[in-house]
Amino acid sequence: MALIQLKNIHKAYELGKTTVTALRGVDLEVQGGEFTVVMGPSGSGKTTLLNIIGLLDRASSGSYRLEGEEVGDRDFNDLAELRNRKIGFIFQSFNLIPVLNVLENIEFPCLIAGESKRTLRERAERVAADVGLSQFLHHRPDELSGGQRQRVAIARALVTQPQLVLADEPTANLDSATSEQILDLMEELNRTRHVTFLFSTHDPRVMRRARRVVRIADGVLVDGTAEARHETRMLEMA
């Protein structure tokens, strides 16, 4: 059974008297354990697609099954609970809370869900160790480098033990060497913990690492075609 099953997903936004169509009949399946990139130019629909997969937005029509369960018709309270339990997010701007230290930032999504801090602390420390942050638990974000802040964001995404992590341009604000280190870390987590990673990116370094590239243009998906495979080979040669 696929982790994600999207069938005939459409998404349109009403902007005043104008209707803007972002997605046009998208079909997509993602299996557990994938390390997949969604690529496309600005305005192609990739952010909308990730927002729907991440339960941050709803499709206008179509079916979305997460672990075989239809979620597209859930109310927003149910979606928030599912999102917190099943999906982790990594953002290009890190989105850390500046007044909290590293450990508190990692724990934050679990505390929002009502988990006891006593039971959470050991797991948060273990996840921090997994991403190389054990020496920085009591540092605040402004005391960390960009790469360290992104490691905090990765740990925060993993502490809820999600089946899926969505990463939106996770290397956009990092230099080349730090980007490679972050990608090494995510590949290792994918391999050892079998965490499914779905990226939205323009970064060739990320696309070179992907085991699958999904291309989107004008709200239409191109998945597994000769064109997508050719783009991946060209990136590998770059």
Automatic annotation (TrEMBL):
Domain ABC transporter: 4-238
Molecular-function annotations in GO: ATP binding
Pfam families named among the record's database cross-references: ABC_tran
UniProt key word ATP-binding: yes
Record key words, sorted: ATP-binding, Nucleotide-binding, Transport
Protein name: ABC transporter ATP-binding protein
